[in-house]
Amino acid sequence: SLLAPAEMSSPSLKTGAYILIGVGALTMLMGFLGCLGAVNEIRCLLGLYFTCLMMILITQVAAGLVIYFQAAKLKVELSNIVRSLIKNYDPSNDDERNLQDAWDYVQRQIACCGWDGAQDWESNEILINKSMTEYPCSCSNSTKDLEADSGFCNLDDADNSTVTYADWPVHEQGCIDGVENWLKDNLGIILGVCTGVAVIELLGMILSISLCKNIHSEDYTKVPKS
Question: Whole-model pTM above 0.85?
Answer without folding.
Answer: no
